[in-house]
Design goal:
Among the domains are: 97 residues, no CATH class; 91 residues, TATA-Binding Protein (2-Layer Sandwich); 72 residues, no CATH class. 35% of the residues lie in helices and 34% in strands. It is built from 10 helices and 20 strands. Helix 2 packs antiparallel against helix 5, helix 7 crosses helix 10 and helix 8 packs antiparallel against helix 9. The two termini are 58 Å apart.
């Protein structure tokens, strides 16, 4: 039993809790600096030549599970350890403190009162009247009073002792919710053009919600720089009910545990007309070699596929640049304008943007939000100081002994005692 007690004492020590919090903070920083959930080849290519912190290459990084820090065995171990430490601390320290605060302590000796943080002694010849005045005054000031044979015990702010326990409980729930969400949550990122949709599966791998992009708009400043992107989406339930919602950057949609973010934008296709052909909607893809936000496609100018040209564009507003197969710029086309390239007439009718949607399902969110509420309540209660006052009458010497203690704001309590004494003098 002694060894178990020593282990529990070590486990619930403040130093261990601070060390665990420090390690968790460092781990979170590493998870922020290192890209997460990428392919193994990505880490080999990026960290073998330039090791993280100069010593952690791709092989070590994967071995230590830095590619998924928040679900790694060692990170989960740290969270479990911290949660256990908080639970042990609550049971070994905070609960006994709360229990002690709820119990009435009866001081029967003047010596006991004299040892308190604050103590006063006064002479009173009218014993019963003096005690009655003190009792009434304490009750008026919101104190909980208990009187026993010439002795008064009063307390105030006992609920403040519940604060640390609630904070510990909230932190434990926070870690449970975050861990549960990391292990069971899902993240989907898709680029959708208007009219396209994503089918989501439920827990039984059956078709659940369908997210359909109805409309996508990019707002730009007079210089053409992107200011905001807005998507109007249809949420289609399995029973056929449709709800239209609008999302934009920093204004996500939350629906049935699913959070839909407006993440990015791209270009999906170009609608063109070649000579007298029908309207052709040609998909375009990002071309990183030409720039950060450049999309394009290669089309032939002859029926046999010969003499291809490259069309590139960097905005849904145009223009579209036309390049020869050797990289020579042949023409620049605005929307609804046509030009003849290599004896072929090309007209750009439309440039279709696509909305980057980020869908997150995190089943741990209710626990996380609940934990925040509990922590806020616990923090608010912790501000309340717990104060106790004892009054003892010694009839033989016509003396009244008054003493008190407080876990915080002792100076405030020391200012309250003179008001009780002055009341008696009057």
């Amino acid at each position: 039993m002694k060894k178990i007690s020593q282990v529990l004492k070590w486990l619930s020590s403040l130093k261990i809790a601070i060390l665990l919090l420090l390690l968790i903070a460092i781990s979170c920083a590493a998870g922020t600096l290192i890209p997460q959930q990428e392919s193994n080849q990505f880490y080999y290519d990026n960290f073998n030549k330039n090791p993280f912190l100069g010593i952690i290459n791709g092989n070590i990084l994967l071995l230590l599970e830095f590619n998924h820090v928040y679900t790694s065995f060692w990170f989960l171990f740290l969270l479990i350890w911290l949660g256990l430490a908080l639970a042990v601390c609550s049971f070994r320290r905070q609960l006994p403190i709360l229990k002690s605060a709820l119990n009435w302590i009866d001081y029967k000796s003047p010596r006991q009162i004299a040892k308190l943080s604050i103590a006063q002694t006064i002479v009173s010849h009218n014993h019963s009247e003096s005690l009655e005045k003190i009792k009434l005054n304490l009750k008026k000031q919101g104190w909980n009073v208990k009187e026993t044979e010439g002795r008064i015990a009063a307390r105030q702010g006992v609920i403040g002792r519940l604060g640390p326990i609630l904070i510990h409980l909230g932190m434990i729930l926070l870690m449970i919710g975050a861990t549960y969400g990391s292990l069971n949550g899902k993240t989907i990122e898709r680029f959708l053009a208007p009219g396209r949709s994503i089918d989501l599966l439920n827990n039984n791998e059956e078709k659940g919600l369908t997210i359909e992009l109805q409309k996508f708009k990019i707002e730009r400043d007079p210089q053409g720089r992107t200011e905001q992107y807005t998507s109007k989406v249809n949420i289609i339930e399995p029973n056929g009910n449709i709800k239209s919602k609008e999302i934009s950057v920093n204004y996500p949609l939350r629906y049935q545990g699913l959070t839909l973010y407006q993440a990015e934008w791209a270009l999906a296709a170009i609608t063109i007309q070649i000579n007298n052909s029908p309207k052709l909607q040609i998909p375009i893809e990002a071309i990183p070699d030409l720039g950060e936000q450049v999309w394009g496609t290669i089309i032939p100018t002859q029926k046999d596929g010969q003499n291809p040209i490259l069309l590139t564009v960097d905005s849904e507003l145009g223009p579209v640049s036309v390049f020869d197969n050797d990289g020579t710029l042949l023409a620049t086309l605005s929307i609804n304008k046509e030009v003849e390239v290599k004896e072929t007439t090309i007209k750009i009718l439309n440039i279709i943007p696509s909305s980057g949607l980020l869908l997150k399902y995190d089943p741990g969110v209710p626990l996380v939000y609940t934990s925040f509420a509990i922590i806020l309540i616990g923090g608010s209660l912790s501000i309340i100081s717990t104060k106790k006052i004892w009054v003892l009458l010694e009839e033989e010497n016509s003396m009244i002994y008054i003493g008190g203690l407080s876990n915080r704001n002792l100076s405030g309590l020391s200012k309250e005692l003179p008001s009780l004494i002055n009341n008696l003098d009057n």
